[in-house]
Amino acid sequence: MGRSHKTQYRFGPYTLEPDERRILGEGASPIELTAKAFDLLALLVGRAEQLVTKDEILEAVWQEVSIAESNVTTTISMIRKALQEDSEHRYIETVPKKGYRFVAAVSVVSVPDRDGADPVDQMLPSRTQNEKRLNWIRLFGLLAILVGTGIVFGVLHFRRPMTNGSDTLYQNGVRDDAEGKDNLAIKELTEVPQSDPKFVEARTKLAWLLYQSDKNDDAKRCLEPVLSAKSPIAPGLPDKSASLKIEGIKQLLTDHPNDALDDFQLAAESDPRDTDALIYIADTAISTGNLVEADKALAKCEAIDRLNPFCGYERIDALTHEGEYDKAITEYNNLRSSNYPWMDQPAGYAELARGNVDEALKHFNSLVADGPTGSHVHFLAAQDGIVAADLLKGEMATALRRLTTAMNQTYSGYEKADYLILMAEIEALHGNSGQVKAELEEASKLSDSPAFAIEIARTYAMIGDDANAQSFLARAQRVEPGLELEYGAADPFIHGLESLRRKDFEMASEQLNTSFSMNQSPETAYFLAKAEMGLGDWSAAINHLNFIIKNKAKVFIDSVASLIPLSEFDLSVCYRSSGQESEANNHLSTARRMWEHADPDLKARFTNSTSNTASKIPRSE
């Protein structure tokens, strides 16, 4: 009697042994997988080059257990890490909205078993016997999967060859950061030891990631080991670039974005192939409205690494801020096959600016669904995007309910305060002052952020509470350096709104112009246009209202989205008053179309096309 044979699947440096339920890496080193992860990998390998849908995966691997699709995404991502797959996805390809495909070449090898009979010594079965045998094999295979997958349900645990554990931590952190898994990336980068050559680079990436996550205090702490090192960073191109990037991040953490931009540009000059420095330039330049510098940095980044996901993200974001919405979506479509779901964030805002609300919601909802395993930063941004879509449609009650739910689901005092201030701004803009004071008072208890104090002061001014407005502005006088412009712009804003309520349009225009010259806030532009409408200066009002329309992305991301339809309506008033009836009708139609299904009290504002105001300026109580 001979020996029976077992099947192995070989791809790259790996050997998958279904019968032994194990996968071996280089040097026959085992890679540990949970039952679910192993079954999912075996399923894909067994159907190499075929699309395996998410429904098929859920049915084959999880069977009767009800889980979210995000568990599949998480397991796929972790399998990729176990296989040390790079950003090109050499093994598992994501088919957007469908499923996955194993794309590496797979060889099927039959190896002898120790105890079985050699099938070549057996009588060849007839065709009928062979079909029966195949059916039994399929049945036993299915039973094996059912038993194997029913025993363990958990998170994938894997082990790689650890020739350098800290280097693996660094590489894992970089990969998880690219895939939008912020919390995991933060953990891995934090654990890179100070003795590792990658320590400074890891701390730089970690500080940037924490800054992007609005965790400024944590970012400052993570840089302390680098800044307090006994021996300074040695000179040389890479180290000089690193020190300049760290200095730039320090400037961002103290609200000095222009100084940070200078440091990042020097870092890029000292090491022309440092794509991180170029990405930091682009992100900072976009946030400060310096889109020319952003474009220059991104062009250099793309020349070095066209497939860099962060570069792609910043390009979509820059195009959106530049008003090039069609180009932004084209760029997104060129990159959508990559496994970087957070690119849905700028794409969602681009679609919203194009007026494609349903398409925008698809992007935002995709990020929200990915929230438990994806990026918390982009998850929060997606929630804000959905609220912006509500406000663009005039569904203020829905937007406020959504914000209340989000606020109640977070444990962060900073995030709660941010939600409360946004709710207050929405209500103040629409003249609903009832809950504004309570919301602002609660926000002030949850966070003493100087930036929040300035926002609270401005919002109090919007409801005519000048005493509280000045009180909070006085608190903000103790701001950290870097908020000088915002602080300086807030005082004339408060006085400008007070003059506007008194219908002293000339003084209001003067004060609000001063504020706008210091900080080009969409709300300031809106109220400045009101003052100019009061003066009958239709041309100036049109210019400031068009500033809002041309900067839709800034409004959606940093302000209250309902400013867009309100400005469209006021543009119709200005054009009609200046004798341009055709333009007036176009803008009125746009405003009415946006708020076709708006809340009744908001929709009623657009019924009278001869009105000279779309929103009321609240008076002092």
Overview of the molecule:
- Helices cover 63% and strands 5% of the residues.
- The chain is globular.
- A hairpin with a 5-residue loop joins strand 3 and strand 4 (30-31).
- The strands form 2 sheets. Strands 4-3-2-1-8 form a 5-stranded antiparallel sheet, with helices on one face. The protein has a 3-stranded antiparallel sheet with strand order 5-7-6.
- It has 30 helices and 8 strands.
- It has 621 residues and is mainly α.
- It folds into 3 domains: 5-151, Winged helix-like DNA-binding domain superfamily/Winged helix DNA-binding domain (Arc Repressor Mutant, subunit A); 169-355, Serine Threonine Protein Phosphatase 5, Tetratricopeptide repeat, CATH 1.25.40.10; 393-606, Serine Threonine Protein Phosphatase 5, Tetratricopeptide repeat (Alpha Horseshoe).
- It has helices at 35-46, 54-62, 70-82, 127-151, 165-178, 182-190, 199-212, 216-227, 237-253, 257-270, 275-287, 291-304, 309-321, 325-335, 344-353, 357-369, 376-392, 396-409, 413-429, 436-446, 450-462, 466-475, 484-501, 505-518, 522-535, 538-550, 552-558, 563-577, 581-594, 600-603, and strands at residues 5-11, 14-17, 22-24, 30-31, 51-53, 92-95, 99-102, 107-112.
